[in-house]
Amino acid sequence: MHSVRIIRLLPMLIWLLAAGAGTVLPTRALAATPPQQQAKQAIVVFIDNLSFSDMAQLRRYPHVQKGLRDAFYAALTIRSPGSRSDANSYLLMGSGGPALYTSRSGTVYHREETLPLAGIHGETTAVERMIQLRGSKPASWRKTAPELLFPGIYRLHAYNADRPYTARIGLLGSTLAEAGIAVSLYGNGDTSEGKQRHAALFAINRDGEIAGGDVSARTTQRAAGYPDGIRTHYAYLLERIKQEKAGLVVVQIADLARLYRLREDLAPDQFQRQYEAILADLDRFLGALLQGRKAEQLLLVTSPSVNPVAAQEKSLLTPLLLWKGNNGGGELVSLTTRQPGLVSGLDVLPTILAWLSVPLPDGVIGHVMTGSGGERAAAVFSPLPLADPSAGSPSFFPAFLSKVKEIDRVYQNRSGILYSYVMLQIAILLGATLAWVWQKDGKRPLASRLRRAVRLALLAMLFFPALFLLEPLLGWHVPAPVIFAVIVMFALGGALLVENWRLPKLFLAVAGFTVCCILLDGFTGGGAMRRSYLGYDPVVGARFYGLGNEYEGVLIGASVLAVASLYEWRKRRQHARLTLPFLLALAGFALTLFYMAAPTLGTNAGGFLAGAIAFAITLFRLEGWRIGKGGLFLCGGSLLGGIALLIALHLGSSAPLTHVGLVAADIVSGNWDDVRQIVERKLEMNLRLIRVSSWSKMFVISLIVIGLLSLRPDRFLRRLSSRYPYLVRGFSGVVAGSVAGLVLNDSGIVSAATSIVFFVAPALFAALGEGDKLPPADTSGAEQA
Q1: Phi and psi dihedrals of 175, rounded to 5?
Q2: Staple partner for 411: which of 125, 539, 665, 742, CB 3.0–4.6 Å?
Q3: Which of 751, 759, 755 is nearest to 785 (CA)?
Q4: How far is CA 60 from CA 68, 223, 256, 395, 398, in A?
Q5: For the segment 373-405, what is each residue's pLDDT rounded down to a tens digit?
Q6: Helices 628-651 and 605-623, interaxial angle, to 10°?
Q7: What SS3 class is residue 302?
Q8: In Å, how far are 104, 364, 617, 644 from 152, measured between CA atoms?
Q9: How many Cα atoms within 13 Å fall on the side-chain side of residue 394?
Q10: Poorest-confidence range of 379-388, 572-581, 625-634, 733-742?
């Protein structure tokens, strides 16, 4: 009887033992990756020609409006080494770096799709063409070739060879293939004029292959009332996307691009009808994707370029929307830009690989996009929800659109305002020089009023940089001519307030005010510089944070002028050692250099080195130290020490590497090819700017004025040094910083031109005031300059 009961209970005992063992024994099944991680999927939808003006309309449709509650969003900036084209943008995002497309490389085809042979009557299939170009059938194809093939891949590689950058075309596709993750591409931008399937440039591997997908005519359908009678077959795309279980799925939708291509051929009301129909289709398509989205899916929606109307209006940033997991939404940011609501095309590849749990390849310069609420707690890939779940609600999206409009406004007005600014400075310098020479040549006395007006204009030149930095804080929206006129009036007002001060006090006040404004903004996040017309522009994408080259030159020139004026104002005794001016100068220079070098502040390597040279020479001259051979060795050693300090600061920082840190890492690891390419690229950019930029004209005219002041008439600078010896000695530091900035920066002509102003304008101001309210000569402790 008991044995029967034991036999009956035996299965239950075995089950309990197995269950208990399963909770403690480290079996292979439990150690394996959870199923939800294995099934992760990234869906990237490219809507060609989608701009923020289109997004402002699309967000009014019900499904998109609802989806924005959980969306992360940002403006996407793409800086290509070539033109702003769809193909170049797709290449940059898929390569994780710069690359250029050539139309001679063609497009992608299905393996059995026929393509014409140039110069030969007849056709061949894509697979046959690939075998012809390779010379043999790759072993990786096994039984069949990949579904999609890009025969022009080798021409594309050759086109990007020997350029001042390392092009890694197909990096995304190859990295995923090596990790065993499938890649598929659906949709096309084909028109009556030819096949356009540029989204393949984002998904291909380095051999021009995409494992699965469909880019044929099946992804479109004939539909009256649509551009060229062609409409994306959304139902077919949705069905195929549902069949994809994991990996990367790329979708290209080109209805908007087809419509804008025919915009000038359509009646306005017909264009509007087709436009609204396309937006309604997009709303339903995105709504279906969002409704069926699972926690292990990431959905990214963006565009490689804006529509022609937006491009003409210089609104070049494209929308980027991202949904993942169950987290709330909000503005995206990346360590590439460090600006909430702004990300780079370089960040798309790292974001996708991070979601699919694939390690980043070496040399990738982009970063994973994160929520702007904090790099850790609000990370896009964090399992924790955002602290403010309402951050992504539609009520916040209009504020984000306003921020984008402000960026567009600065970009639209920047070139005109800066050109007017540079031309005004050139006109002031030429007018002041002619007035000074006219007065000295003795043809007739210069009218007092005219001389005063020219001196006020010269003094206003020193106020311009600080006013350009303060202008964004007004938060106003007025036309560019009004902005420029107000800045000019305030500069003249400041000049009127201080025109009668003694030169040392005057220049110390103006230059010191400029330095304080730059450092205060820099140490508090640099918000004003990011929106200043004299700052850097995120649309151009040359720099997103830190100290730009324009204000680099201003900071160096103003710092030297302020210190020289301080010495002149509080002249030290001839045999004194540690004086107050020396200690203040040393502290001010050290603080400025720290700001320039710090990876979380200025992050400007060229500015740091140029500033170190300028400040060292300034102290040598002001203190009367003789340089000699030992001094030259000291300067050379200081330069090498500065480079070593930069490397240590950036590589020793706990924060992810900045662009300067990446260069430092290349130097330490011996990647001299990459360093050489960076140097070549910077030299090429500098030479191009010298040829075409208005800043180069400003710099050349400044050098001519300095030559006139130094040589004729009567060598004015030599005579000025007898009255203001420390001020004139400081001018040598400005020149050194200007020349160093020209050599050490990729757009060094800008730094050189903005720096040299702090020599030319004060010198001409003093020259035109010679003999008029100037103090008597005081040569105690002075030496000839």
Answers
A1: -65, -45
A2: 539
A3: 759
A4: 10, 25, 17, 12, 11
A5: 533 333 333 333 333 433 444 557 788 888 899
A6: 150
A7: strand
A8: 8, 24, 55, 44
A9: 13
A10: 379-388
Asked if residue 522 lies in contact with residue 602, where contact means CB atoms within 8 angstroms, the answer is yes
Spatial separation of the C-alpha atoms in residues 380 and 72, rounded to whole Å: 8
CA atoms within 13 A on the CB side of 140: 11
Does residue 640 contact residue 647 with C-beta atoms inside 8 Å? no
Q: How far apart are CA 390 and CA 386, in angstroms?
A: 9
Any idea which of 137-146, 409-418, 461-470 has the lowest mean pLDDT? 137-146
Measured CA to CA in angstroms, residue 487 lies from 417, 459, 463, 754 at distances of 11, 14, 9, 17
pLDDT at residue 1 tops 50 = no
Q: Rounded to an integer, what is the distance from CA 400 to the centroid of its chain?
A: 19
- The closest alpha carbon to 126, from 140, 135, 116, 118, belongs to 116
- How far is CA 467 from each of CA 276, 518, 543, rounded to the nearest angstrom? 45, 11, 21
pLDDT for res 191: 86
Instruction: Output the six-digit token pair for 264.
Output: 């000038």
CA–CA distance, 346 with 98 (Å, rounded to integer): 9
The rounded distance, in Å, linking the Cα atoms of 321 and 12 is: 53
Token pair 């820099």 in the structure block, residue: 522
Strand 41-47 and strand 212-214: the pairing is unpaired
Q: Which amino acid is at 495?
A: A
Q: Phi first, then psi: what are they for 709, rounded to 5°?
A: -65, -30
Residue located via tokens 């508090």: 524
Calpha distance 7→591 (Å, rounded): 84
Beta bridge partners of 324: 298
Task: Check residues 588 and 11 and name the one with the higher pLDDT.
Answer: 588
Write out pLDDT tens, residues 671-697: 545 555 555 556 666 666 667 678 888
| H-assigned helices in 25-170 | 28-31, 35-38, 52-58, 62-67, 86-95, 126-134, 153-159
- Taking residues 554-580, what's their average pLDDT? 80
Q: Which of 42-51, 85-94, 563-572 has the lowest mean pLDDT?
A: 563-572
CA distance 530 to 527: 5
Cβ contacts of residue 744 below 8 Å, gap of 6+?
605, 606, 609, 610
CB neighbours of 112 closer than 8 A, spacing ≥ 6? 125, 126, 127
Report how far residue 760's alpha carbon sits from residue 770's, in angstroms, rounded to the nearest whole number: 15
Nearest CA to 602 among 514, 540, 533, 529? 529
Per mean pLDDT, which range of 272-281, 584-593, 654-663 is the poorest?
654-663
Q: Which two tokens stand for residue 96?
A: 């994780």
pTM of the entire predicted model: 0.82
Measured between its terminal Cα atoms, the distance across the chain in Å is 119
d(CA 774, CA 500): 10
- Asked if 745 and 552 count as a contact pair (C-beta separation under 8 A), the reply is yes
Report DSSP state, residue 749: H
Per-residue model confidence (pLDDT) at position 678: 55
Measured distance CA(675)–CA(678) in Å, rounded: 5
The per-residue pLDDT for range 92-139, each reduced to its tens digit, is: 999 998 899 999 998 999 988 888 776 556 678 888 888 888 887 777
The conformation of residue 69, written as its DSSP 8-state character, comes to G
Mean pLDDT for 623-638 is 64
Is 654 exposed, middle or buried (CB count within 10 Å of its CB: 0-12, 13-18, 19+)? exposed
